Amino acid sequence: MRRVPITKEGYERLKNELQRLQKEERPSVIKAIEEARAHGDISENAEYEAAKEKQAMIEGRIQDISQKLAQCEIIEPSDSDNGKVIFGSRVVVEDAETGEVTSYTLVGPYEADVLAGTISVTAPLGKALIGKEEGEEVRVQTPKGIRSIEILEVNN
Fold it and tell me: What does the pLDDT read at residue 85?
């Protein structure tokens, strides 16, 4: 089985979501199904159908998170300040074409969220940044074409 890197915080978030789904959401939807059944004919019962659909979504998410947690390997970001981009680094980059400055933290694929400022080490930009140093320019293939990105700052 392939191991997927994750930070301790990311692992805890997934574990907490799994526990919430199992201990709160699952019992709540089971109760809703029982209540809908009590209303009589389930063949034309919209509440029953909605509850069954929600149950399927919850069970699917539980299975998804369980599989992810089984594959995870917690990686503690290094405190060494060798100046190179590594897992857990916070990197400030500038797009050479637009001049846009952005900050990212490199994390595992199960916890990446561009809107939150985290990108996966397995994403094209993450792969391009790994092992590079401040001042280096990297070229990365994106859906909009090849972009040149300059590394302005690396914090480990």
Answer: 92
Domain boundary (74, 103, 129) is at 74
- Look at the chain and report how many structural domains it folds into: 2
Q: 110-146 pLDDT, tens per residue? A: 999 989 999 999 999 999 999 999 999 999 998 888 9
Start-end of H helices in the chain: 8-20, 26-38, 46-71, 124-129
The residue range of the domain holding 142 is: 90-155
Q: Is the pLDDT of residue 60 over 90?
A: yes
* Euclidean distance between CA atoms 36 and 50, whole angstroms: 10
Q: Which DSSP string corresponds to 3-28?
A: -EEE-HHHHHHHHHHHHHIIIIIHHH
Contact 115, 122 (CB under 8 A): no
